[in-house]
Amino acid sequence: MDSRTVALGWIAMVLAAGIAAGAQAPKQTFRDDLMFLRKHTDVIVLTDRSGQGQVAVVPKMQGRVMTSSAAGPTGYSFGWINRELIAARTPVEHMNAFGGEDRFWLGPEGGQFSIFFDRGVPFDLEHWYTPAAIDTEPWELVSKSRQSALLRKTMRMRNYSGTVLDLRAEREVRVLDRDAALSQLGTTAGRDVKMVAYESENKIINTGKDPWQKETGLLSIWILGMFNPSPEITIVVPFVAGPDDQLGPVANDSYFGKVPAERLVVREGVLFFSGDGQYRSKIGLSPKRAKPVLGSYDAMHGVLTIVQYSKPEGVEDYVNSMWEKQDQPYRGDVVNSYNDGPPTPGAKPLGPFYELETSSPAAALAPGENIVHTHRTYHFTGSETQLDPLAKRVLGVTIAQIKAALP
């Protein structure tokens, strides 16, 4: 079964269960979302020194960052939240799409080293299950302060080939103050630009007695951010330019069928992808093509979003998540972006939302060794004139170029 058929089947099952969320109101505030979350679970609110940058972390949902604001409680809420699923308080069988702009997963999803399929079963929807430790089980809150929260989870994974992988995951979410955040990006911003920035430092440690080896299967850290779509969102992904015969294709856009030309435009060194939540599609970039930054611009709300992540230079082994026995299980993507939409004409979408995703390299760890993957999220709000220097410096294109990129 190809990935498009699988995905459509999964969406149909989610919709049949009656938990697919409707579109979020475009002016949803951080306070609105925080009040909703607190009715259903414990929430930690982290703040920067100004008190305006605020981040909501939910330990019982794997320590994910559910949403954030650049302007305090009344600011626009950036994260997509699946209110219907959370309010139902009844987990669904295969995967619980609670939402959140920074959530922890592990790869690979498919292939002979998958942790989503039991040994020997077909790679189809019926046999696909998200491991509970990264789907429904709560994580331990180890410590917290005004600006950070540390969480952890001990887990055991058994992959498709039968290899048992014992590990502990540790995850620290930290809100960054303005100057520190801008320094990480290597840029500046006018004082009229409002912003919130935070990072998740994600670690997995081999707590077993045996080394993790390529021949028996490796894991990777996979961070996914789910954001509110709008008709005027364009995703921007800088890439390493060069010939395909040396670097491979610029992007893999075959996950759910080839992306139409009006929704994916490739220029010299940068690609543009629609984040309107109206057409289900996904892209991915290989380690030879990916740069350690990507982002989006929402012209409707004046929001520039940047994701920056740790990408070790020269490393090419990333797990492959295709739902099939693989000839190259360590030739997966480093960054991905997903745009939600109706799975079939006239059907409800899962969200809608769009995603910015990053992954660590495959982790070949001896007992006691660890790998760390850092994923930073920045939201800037302001006028086009105010945001233009940021876009140019970090993404390599102007706001005008982003707005004009897609037909």
Query: What's the helix count?
Result: 7
Helicity, as a percent range: 10-25%
Mean pLDDT: 93
CATH first level: Mainly Beta
Into how many domains do the coordinates divide?
Answer: 1
Shape assignment: globular
CATH topology: Beta-galactosidase, Chain A, domain 5
Q: What Rg do the Cα atoms give?
A: 20 Å
Describe the structure.
- With 407 residues, this protein is an alpha+beta fold.
- It has a single domain (3-405), classed as Beta-galactosidase, Chain A, domain 5 (Distorted Sandwich), CATH 2.70.98.
- Helices cover 15% and strands 31% of the residues.
- It is built from seven helices and 18 strands.
- A ten-stranded antiparallel β-sheet has the order 5-6-7-8-18-15-14-10-12-11. A five-stranded antiparallel β-sheet has the order 4-9-17-16-13, with no helix packed on it.
- Strand 1 and strand 2 (54-58) form a beta hairpin.
- It is globular.
- The relative contact order is 0.17.
